[in-house]
Amino acid sequence: MTPPRPARKQIHLAAHFPGVNSTTVWADPRSGSQIDFSSFEHLARTAERGLFDFFFLAEGLRLREHAGRIHDLDVVGRPESITVLNALAAVTDRLGLAATVSATFNEPYELARRLASLDHLSGGRAAWNVVTSSDAFTGENFRRGGFLDRNDRYTRAAEFVATARELWDSWPEGGERRRFAHHGQHFAIEGEVTVERPPQGHPVVIQAGDSDEGREFAASAADVIFSRHSTPEAGRAFHADVKRRLGRYGRRPEELKIMPAVTYVLGETEAEAREKAALISRQQVSPQNALLALEQVWGRDLSSYDPDGPLPDVDPEPDSTLVQGRVRVADPLAVAARWRALSEAKGLSIRETVVEATARHSFVGTPASVAAALEEHVATDAADGFILVPHLTPGGLDDFVDLVVPLLQERGVFRTEYTGTTLRSHLGLPAPVWKGGTP
């Protein structure tokens, strides 16, 4: 008798609403509003039509600045994330709804209420992407300003998540609400929660930090990691490292899903896909954007340089404050050295160097080859799934859902229908154990 074929590892998919970075091709005539609700609705409905696990919204708490001016790639006027997701709960049925919310500039009681409310209104589809900040520039918008030392941001985040879970557990489903009391390093609160325990028990927790502290925090507290490691080698190393950490917290590997952010370009042939990818890259890195990217590394005003000319022969200023509100380049001198070597080896201009160094697409090819590559990544433990970041708003996900998803379904690695109603069920995550005592 032929032994049964082992089940193929299933792929998890999520959709990231584009914008607030150079991924978006703003100049494309198909690029729509980043603010109108119709754009959010279109992308969310497309993701649900494709049976995706969740829809993901980033959040910025302050408009970034470049040389004292608002950064051109920022979206000005975008609504607050949880507000948008509450509206999307009314026009979707199964799609998970994930909001990025800072654990540095919020408080556990208020955020726990808001996330529990979203979970109730959506029937158990809420998720929270936990982010941290030690950025005094962003903190100026808040009462305590830049009070938080960088070394404390993950200790506060860990206590924040634990406290939110205590609050969600303080009112069991079908039971009487209980008073809560939490007294820790960062929070000393007590009282009663005004919203019943969420349908999922706890909304899904997503985390995106890549430092050692961030990986440890994810292993201890997260359900999903929003990873930046999209190449097979880097993905497998990251996947193995984080999954290995779970045991020290009494968790199993399947209790944490690793989903890198990825981009894709499809063509009828491999050659056509490569040509489209090259065009998109050049659209993403306009002459102006090339100089902005260069200034982020160099920390200097380089507006007098020709984007089609050579790289600057001056060194970066590592302690520059030219760019505010963006993640600082960790080692600008090393990055500049790599870019110079690349430019000299290939005879590239400033713009061509930035395109070559930064504008890389994760998956480029025909629908069949992209589907095969996605399956290979997941089958070899380079990822558990992917958060797709399209380059167009709001229709950038349409071709993937129409052309790639059916092939993944034919391969037996992606669902053909939703089998559950909650985001936890889509992700295959266990229900959280109620820790408040006997209901």
What is the highest CATH level, the class of the largest domain? Alpha Beta
- In helices, the fraction of residues equals 25-40%
> Mind telling me the C-alpha Rg?
22 Å
Q: Distance N terminus to C terminus?
A: 51 Å
Which residue ranges are poorly predicted, with pLDDT under 50 across at least 5 consecutive positions? Answer: 1-5
Instruction: Give the second-level CATH assignment, the architecture of the largest domain.
Output: Alpha-Beta Barrel
Helix and strand run: EHEEEHEHEHHEEEHEHEEHHEHHEHEHH
Class based on secondary structure composition and strand pairing: alpha/beta
Largest beta-sheet details: 8 strands, parallel, barrel
What's the shape?
Answer: globular
The overall average pLDDT, rounded, is 89
CATH topology of the largest domain: TIM Barrel
Keywords:
439 residues, alpha/beta, TIM Barrel, 2 domains, eight-stranded parallel barrel, three-stranded antiparallel sheet, 37% helix, monooxygenase, EC 1.14.-.-, NtaA/DmoA family FMN-dependent monooxygenase
In short:
The protein is an alpha/beta fold and 439 residues long.
